[in-house]
Each structure stands twice: as C-alpha cells, then as structure tokens.
Design a protein that fits this description.
Blueprint: H1 6-15, H2 23-35, H3 38-54, E1 56-57, E2 64-65, H4 71-74, E3 79-86, H5 89-98, E4 103-107, H6 125-134, E5 139-142, H7 148-161, E6 167-170, H8 186-194, E7 197-198
Parallel strand pairs: 3-4, 3-5, 5-6
Antiparallel strand pairs: 1-2, 6-7
Helix pairs in contact: 1-2, 5-8
Length: 203
Amino acid sequence: MNFSSKLLENAVNEVSQLPGIGKRTALRLVLHLLKQPTSQTHRLSEALNNLVDDIKLCKKCHNISDVDVCEICANPSRNEEIICVVEDVRDVMAIENTAQFKGLYHVLGGKISPIEGIGPHNLTIDSLIEKVKSGTVKEVIFALSSTIEGDTTNFYIFKQIEKYHIKTSTIARGIAVGDELEYADEVTLGRSIVNRIPFENSL
C-alpha cells in the first residue's frame, strides 16, 4: 500500500495493530478521522491518553476502575461472602447487566493456556486464594467461558482452595460449551448465575 504521506502511513500502521483491523480498514478509519472536526479527533486522542495514563486496577478484585477500589467492591450492599471468578472486565459487565448477581468479583486477567505461555503465576490466582484463606468468603462461583482453557483454570483453582472447605459452584450450562461469556444473552447468563451448580458435579 503506497502512501502519499508518512504521517498518514504511521497513523494507519498504528490503527491496524488493533484486533480485527486490517490495513484497508485502518486507512478508512484514519481518513474518516481526518474529515471530522479537529476538536472531535483531539477529544478521541485525549480520551485514549487518559485511559492509558490514569486507568487503575481495583486493589480488591482487579477490575478496571478509575479509583483504587472499584464501585462494586465499595458498595456496602454487595455480599462479600460470595466471589464470582471471571476472566476479564467484559465478563463483569456481562454479568452486571443481568442484575442477578449481588456478590463481588475476582478478575483473573486471563485463563491458563500453556500454548500461549500463560500459567497460574500470570493470573491473579494467588490473591484469590488469599481471600479464601481470610475466612470471609463462603462461596466461590466459577464463571469462566466453557472452553478447555476455562475448564483447566477452574479445576486448577478448585484444587488450590478445596482444602478450605468452602462452597464452590459453576454457572449452569445454559451457556453452550465453547462459548465466550461476554457473547451470551442477558437472560441466559442471568439464569446460569441463579441456577449455578456445585463445581464437583461439573467434573
């Protein structure tokens, strides 16, 4: 692809690094931005800069937040005895949209995947175990996607915490095997949370 401008080429190259964006789509997006009012493009740039510079991870659950403790963890009406273990912030948003879960979350930041070089030490599993050790947690709900990596991660965590004799459950399989949680409709996902089953029964 021949560019008449190095500035244009650099912008296209950067945009094309985004998932699912090829060079042609990146060029179309960049040209669209050039046609917009300068103030609008500057607002986009400022929003991205603020995102990178100021975003935080909640000290309690590792969810993305503007402050040290996210709104969910800081909400006194949430049941801190129930922890829902999810892969990332998209899953928190999906479950919150169902309005069926009133406990807290623990965001792992991924799933165990030896092929991708992701092991337990790359995730926030240790801090989850510390929560369980504290004695305040009565139930851990596994809400990872129904994939081999998700099931492997669930089982690994289960083996780490089973000695503490707390209740462990997994979302009901209204979510099809192989599906990513974030794509499930709200009604199905909500029912899966409400009708969760003991984790041992899913092995």
